[in-house]
Amino acid sequence: MAENKGTHFPEPHTRQDFHEVKDKIVESVELFVEPTFYGITIRFQDKTALTFSIESCGVVAFPVLADWTGGEEKTLKKYTPVRSKIPPEA
Q: What global pTM score does this model have?
C-alpha cells in the first residue's frame, strides 16, 4: 500500500525581530481596539511607523513598561488591560 505523504505545513513564527527600527527614536505609541481593526502603531521621530495589525476573536492586551538596563526585566508600570469589543451576533 502506498504511504500517505500528506501536506507538510511549516511551524508558525513565534518571534520576529525588526532590525530596521533599531536605534530609532519613538515619538508615540498607539493602541487600537476597534470592532474592525486591532493594532499597535509605533511612530518614530523620522516620520516612519511600525504597525502591528492583529487578528483575533476576543483580545486582551496587558501593556507593561519595563526597564532592561541591567539585562533583566524590571517592571516599571503595569497599565490597565485593554479589551476588545466583540459586536453582538445578528
A: 0.58
Residue 59: Cβ-neighbour burial (10 angstroms; 0-12, 13-18, 19+): middle
Distance separating alpha carbons of residues 9 and 41, to the nearest angstrom: 30
The predicted-structure confidence for 51-61, as pLDDT tens digits, reads as follows 888 876 667 77
Q: Which of 48, 65, 55 is nearest to 33 (CA)?
A: 55
How many alpha carbons lie under 13 Å from residue 71 in its C-beta half-sphere? 0
CA Rg value for the chain: 19
Q: Cell 487578528 maps to which residue?
A: 55
